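Comment thread on ticket #2218

A.B. wrote:
> Attaching the input chain for the structure job we discussed in standup.
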Amino acid sequence: MTKTTMLKIVNPLLLLLVLTQGVTGMFRDQLGLDEAKFELFHVYTGLLLVALALVHLALNWSWIKSQFGRKHPKAPQSPSTK
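C.D. wrote:
> Ran it. Output below, let me know if you need it in another format.
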């Protein structure tokens, strides 16, 4: 499976998990979530969110390094003297 294919799977799952975290965190009482349901939907999906975020970072690590890695300036070219 290619990196692009894996990202096409991981990215929508990350979005779904972020939305789940927001909805269950902000609307727990309105959704009628008792402690057991809250733990199921919020705590465990939060752990899954962190795991998938780490996978996402690993899949994009080469891009991250190229954008934020240490840049070595080129040495100035000295003019040739004739």
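A.B. wrote:
> Thanks. Noting for the ticket: The chain has a mean pLDDT of 87.
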